[in-house]
């Protein structure tokens, strides 16, 4: 039997997009003579519909749209499994509908709901009770729903829907299914991306196929579906512990279909030792996920591009590279023309202009073709090409980045030449539009007003934080204005370490509508930039990679650095991880640190732990106010996705006092 999984880039309640992708996958499956096709979890409505799953109309519309999917399923020999919510007696179930030759055979329902990390399924869905079935009615028709198995071309199959497979052996459906004679387990998933998670999923699928001696077919969603969470579109087909198919993750395509053939007449030996996956390259994974997430966000928000306040520091530089990589990877996979069309923000004239130039061979236009890692697709240098004035001497990727990314350096008397040059060199390297303006006048305007009102001078001695914050805040209005004028999304550059301790000015450097790296810790940001300079070939990162992170908000002679204000970043990350990922108490965190760092002064470690928890508690309100952020690491601090904490609390007063 030819089995296929298709990863789909869906959007909540974008019926047109979702149906088009589903029907396209079915068409591709027909063309490839696939006999059983698995589509991802809840792909008809989108997985991220949130409280809409509690609305009757959503499931009613999904059932209506299902009739359109049904009409695409015209092959007598092909089964299609499509995910949608079904509402019965005021309860919503998360199901996979099985269709063959326009006939609905039934709805398999999810038994275990994902309720950890970024998943809140029990808020929307009810678990299906194993061993039970019921009936779905639609017009004159009735279909079975529940704990079902199916038969197709002599093969018996059943379902684990995403989280079902992540439960222990004594709970998960797999052993009960195999006891009922199932030879094939189909798993439609919506499994969020996190660095290295592919390894976990691979082990899960391979081991299930080995332990239950079945064929296992797994298909995940693809892309930034609803704003925060990205899916990597993983497809896995395995049999008796052996991998038959695994695809390239994080595709820019809407539909990524892969298939493999399984001869169910033969029973191959069981592979006891699972061949391990090569260790995932987290820097590369992060790059792909970040850039795809930005691309999908841009087009799904129907925006024209991005605006970025580029300080030349690590965070803003990483965001700039994220946009440049969105272009590079998108063009690499789709080609310039399809990339531009899919982005949805380029005019037909511009598409023609850019792609005609890109298509010209080097010899025809004097262009220099550079064959490096792919950062420079092609360098057009011939001025006679009548390219727009801004396009001369830019590579294709730079030309496109220039259309999507506008940056501004906004210096003060406290800014250094180093950061200015770092910002300028990176902007030039990626091709972004770059402005440079000062903000001292505005700062003076505001401080002067308050000095007049209070009848005294504001000084660094008496008003340190206030004088820092006004600089960060004064950068916000002009960059917002630019974003509005350009119909662009304003990127805010907060990282996870800064979010942990509120090391940011609210309505200042947090201003923006999208916060791409708020889930990534600062130590990782810095390592990633070193990797990107070399591996992705961005020489414009050379300067930032030689700088210590600094807010540049105090006078230069103060030599302000983040780590002097706070503590070393690796230590901050360690405390954060122990405290909120491993969920230890302050006392346990301190004793763990003392074990791990016996050479560090015990009193100093205690001060850092106290500082961390004090700043953490004081700044929950800031975490509540960050712009939507991407989930990229295995956890994050976003109260709307991974981590909840009270805005007002005792702030660990007792616990910190008790530290020895
Ligand atoms: N629970 C709560 N709910 C609501 N508001 C609360 C609050 N607790 C304090 N507040 C209010 O918060 C305000 C203070 O917050 P905010 O004005 O944001 O500023 P604040 O947190 O006082 O200071 C900002 C910190 O971030 C650092 N920073 C700023 C900008 C850029 C960078 C950089 O790395 O580039 C670093 C800066 O060095 C400083 O340490 C006060 O008005 C206070 O009343
Ligand atoms: N001189 C500046 N010009 C433009 N934007 C700035 C400037 N200084 C700060 N910003 C904005 O404020 C943000 C926060 O500054 P922060 O210092 O936390 O990050 P960074 O400068 O990117 O990195 P690092 O902390 O490693 O120096 C910057 O990312 C940038 O968006
Ligand atoms: N949609 C789901 O059930 C996802 C849950 C599962 N733990 C995962 O992360 O893949």
UniProtKB/TrEMBL annotation:
InterPro entries in the record: C-N_Hydrolase, C-N_Hydrolase_sf, Gln-dep_NAD_synthase, NAD/GMP_synthase, NAD_synthase, Rossmann-like_a/b/a_fold
Keyword Nucleotide-binding: yes
Keywords annotated in UniProt: ATP-binding, Ligase, NAD, Nucleotide-binding
Enzyme Commission number, as recorded: 6.3.5.1
GO cellular component: cytoplasm
Source organism, top-level taxon: Bacteria
Active site: 41 (proton acceptor), 110 (for glutaminase activity), 162 (nucleophile)
PROSITE patterns: CN_HYDROLASE
Database matches in NCBIfam families: nadE
Family to which the UniProt record says this protein belongs: In the C-terminal section; belongs to the NAD synthetase family.
Role summary: Catalyzes the ATP-dependent amidation of deamido-NAD to form NAD. Uses L-glutamine as a nitrogen source.
Protein name: Glutamine-dependent NAD(+) synthetase
Gene that this polypeptide is encoded by: nadE
């Amino acid at each position: 039997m030819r089995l296929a999984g298709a990863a789909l880039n869906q959007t909540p309640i974008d019926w047109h997009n979702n149906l088009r992708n589903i029907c396209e996958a079915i068409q591709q499956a027909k063309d490839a003579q696939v006999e059983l096709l698995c589509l991802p979890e809840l792909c008809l409505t989108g997985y991220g519909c949130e409280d809409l799953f509690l609305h009757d109309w959503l499931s009613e519309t999904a059932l209506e749209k299902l009739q359109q999917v049904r009409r695409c399923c015209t092959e007598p020999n092909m089964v299609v499994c499509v995910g949608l919510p079904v509402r019965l007696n005021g309860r919503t179930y998360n199901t996979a509908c099985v269709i063959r030759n326009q006939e609905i055979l039934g709805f398999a329902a999810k038994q275990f709901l994902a309720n950890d990390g970024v998943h809140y399924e029990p808020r929307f869905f009810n678990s299906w009770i194993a061993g039970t079935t019921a009936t779905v009615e639609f017009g004159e028709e009735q279909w079975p729903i529940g704990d079902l198995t199916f038969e197709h071309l002599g093969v018996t199959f059943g379902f684990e829907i995403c989280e079902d497979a992540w439960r222990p052996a004594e709970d998960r459906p797999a052993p009960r299914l195999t006891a009922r004679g199932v030879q094939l387990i189909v798993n439609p998933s919506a499994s969020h991306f996190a660095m290295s998670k592919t390894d976990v999923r691979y082990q899960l699928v391979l081991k299930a196929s080995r332990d239950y001696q079945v064929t296992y077919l797994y298909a995940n969603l693809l892309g930034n579906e609803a704003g925060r969470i990205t899916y990597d579109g993983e497809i896995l087909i395995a049999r008796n512990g052996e991998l038959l198919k695994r695809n390239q993750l994080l595709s820019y395509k809407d539909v990524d279909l892969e298939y493999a053939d399984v001869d169910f007449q033969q029973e191959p030996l069981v592979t006891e030792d699972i061949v391990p996956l090569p260790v995932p390259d987290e820097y590369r994974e992060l790059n792909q996920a970040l850039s795809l997430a930005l691309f999908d966000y841009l087009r799904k928000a129907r925006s024209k591009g991005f605006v970025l306040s580029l300080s030349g520091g690590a965070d803003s530089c990483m965001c700039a590279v994220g946009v440049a990589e969105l272009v590079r990877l998108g063009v690499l996979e789709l080609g310039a023309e399809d990339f531009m069309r899919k982005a949805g923000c380029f005019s037909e004239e511009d598409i023609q202009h850019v792609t005609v130039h890109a298509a010209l061979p080097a010899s025809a236009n004097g262009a220099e073709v550079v064959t490096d890692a792919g950062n420079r697709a092609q360098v057009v240098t011939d001025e006679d090409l009548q390219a727009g004035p801004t396009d001369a001497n830019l590579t294709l990727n730079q030309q496109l980045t220039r259309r999507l990314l506008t940056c501004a350096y906004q210096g003060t008397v406290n800014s250094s030449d180093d950061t200015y040059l770092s910002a300028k060199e990176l902007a030039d390297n990626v091709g972004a539009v770059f402005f440079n303006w000062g903000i001292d006048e505005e700062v003076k305007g505001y401080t002067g007003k308050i000095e007049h009102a209070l009848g005294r001078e504001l000084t660094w001695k008496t008003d340190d934080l206030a004088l820092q914050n006004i600089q960060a805040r004064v950068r916000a209005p002009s960059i917002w204005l630019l974003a509005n004028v350009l119909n662009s999304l304003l990127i805010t550059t907060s990282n996870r370490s800064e979010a942990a301790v509120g090391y940011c000015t609210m309505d200042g450097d947090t201003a923006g509508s999208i916060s791409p790296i708020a889930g990534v810790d600062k130590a990782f940001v810095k390592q990633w930039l070193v990797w990107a300079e070399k591996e992705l070939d961005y020489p414009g990162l050379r300067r930032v990679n030689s700088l210590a992170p600094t807010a540049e908000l105090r006078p230069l002679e103060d030599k302000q650095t983040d780590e002097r204000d706070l503590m070393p970043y690796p230590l901050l990350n360690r405390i954060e991880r122990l405290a909120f990922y491993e969920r230890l108490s302050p006392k346990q965190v301190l004793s763990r640190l003392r074990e791990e760092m016996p050479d560090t002064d015990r009193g100093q470690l205690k001060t850092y732990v106290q500082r961390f928890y004090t700043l953490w508690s004081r700044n929950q309100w800031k975490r509540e106010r960050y712009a939507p952020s991407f989930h990229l690491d295995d956890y994050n601090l976003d109260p709307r996705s991974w981590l909840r904490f009270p805005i007002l609390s005792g702030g660990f007063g007792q616990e910190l006092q008790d530290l020895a």
